[in-house]
């Protein structure tokens, strides 16, 4: 079995003449947490949307679980990109039931994922009354329904209070032991540093760094160095 659940090979995405993702080659180890870091607008979300089939790459390859990515692989990829799409007038259980019906899954799957994300005791409370953290956890529960091998979370702590961030952090840390690899995208270095084993730093559409996180690494210094270098390269290419 390949030790990498996901590889991208020189992945590119252009919108018209604008190069948003430029030759990104990710290597994501199985049963790990991979932090995809970069400032806003760096190309992180576009990269993740290609991996989840929401966008078609301009060029490059995606290798998932040892073979070229295919739409059938989406059953093994769960994702929460941007805000979760919830029915505000429904409870957590009812929201999940909509998805189990669509996916032809038993209701027991809904009970299982509600327990994983600690929302099993929300009763008749409607999703519109949930805190931001509860909404994020419900979005993750929906992404977990198919028992994915890979879970993609794009800026999951946006808008959360410190308690919500702590709860979500603990939840994310629990996934690799359940056989779920996580890609966590964020522009917040401190968040990624506390949960990830590996990081990739993207800036200006380019993957400037990728490696395992070591205890003595000065990630803030490294992050700033990569971002400044990529901006200089972008300015030079525009001259």
UniProtKB/TrEMBL annotation:
Every ABC transporter domain range: 6-229
Protein name: Lantibiotic ABC transporter ATP-binding protein
Keyword ATP-binding: yes
Similarity comment: family membership: Belongs to the ABC transporter superfamily.
Lineage top rank: taxon: Bacteria
Keywords associated with the record: ATP-binding, Nucleotide-binding, Transport
PANTHER family: ABC TRANSPORTER, ATP-BINDING PROTEIN
Organism: Clostridium estertheticum subsp. estertheticum
NCBIfam families for the chain: galliderm_ABC
Keyword ATP-binding: yes
Pfam families: ABC_tran
